[in-house]
Recover the amino acids of this structure.
């Protein structure tokens, strides 16, 4: 990355009118310095993952058109795909009404995103409506898109209990 | 709501295998007791909003098939649509690999969701790639779907600076 990446300007948040109805980029980061980001496949529309960005990750994503996140488990800036090759090319970046959430529409080789090997991180559904107190998750993807062992090797699993 | 809503069972998180590859619902709530939730339109696939649920909101959503959130600005359980009439009927509820995020696909009257009056909360895009340090937001919805003054009256705006 070059130094220009860090110079994307964020406006100071001054009024609800400015934040909601204006054309200034004035993102709100939480007490950990993070903003939530939902990432969907530009091809299928499917939700692939929900991640978080710090200011630097958001700036780099805007400047480079490649998705950068902040890994909460590893506490580092995370250029998605740097390990797996599954780089996310940003087709569109949107920001929500109060500017505390980002939506990326991305293109990925093979449309695969999840570290477990599935296309989407959201590969299981929970039955809703009348039913048992104990709900059984249903797998919505019948097979993995890639073998995480081959792609990630012995890198530590990011999931925390 | 009846008392059964509160009795949806959550499993204790015991292993990565259980959480990622199992069929038990074992959601992870953050230090504020919340789990992130992305909500898309079942009709258009568009991302409508990114909200948060506490355990009770998730249980009620599962039990009733209507989206419930936890309002961080008001610090209350929030049955979406109770004020506006724009109730979200849950067509599908998914949970992600490490079970710390939820994806709802919903049907809404008029497909409108955002408190500012737009269809989606994500009604503005940020240009990505080479460009000025100061990015100008672009409105992606040309007009509001409803008049928030008529729908919400003088209810306080939830946006916080």
């Amino acid at each position: 990355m070059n130094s220009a990446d860090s110079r994307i300007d964020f406006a100071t948040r001054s009024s609800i009118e400015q934040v909601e109805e204006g054309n200034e980029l004035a993102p709100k980061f939480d007490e950990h310095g993070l903003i939530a980001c939902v990432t969907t496949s530009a091809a299928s529309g499917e939700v692939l993952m929900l991640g978080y960005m710090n200011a630097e990750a958001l700036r780099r994503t805007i400047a480079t058109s490649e998705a950068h996140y902040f890994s909460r488990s590893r506490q580092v800036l995370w250029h998605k795909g740097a390990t797996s090759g599954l780089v996310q090319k940003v087709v569109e970046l949107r920001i929500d009404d109060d500017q505390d959430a980002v939506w990326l529409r991305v293109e990925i080789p093979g449309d695969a995103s999840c570290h477990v090997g599935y296309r989407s991180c959201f590969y299981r559904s929970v039955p809703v409506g009348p039913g048992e107190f104990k709900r059984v998750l249903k797998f919505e993807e019948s097979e993995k898109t890639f073998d995480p062992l081959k792609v990630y090797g012995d890198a530590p699993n990011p999931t925390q209990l």
Q: What stands out?
A: The longest helix of chain B spans residues 55-64. Chain B touches chain A through 65 residues (CB under 8 Å). The CA atoms of residues 29 and 35 of chain B lie 5 Å apart. The two ends of chain B are 34 Å apart (CA to CA).
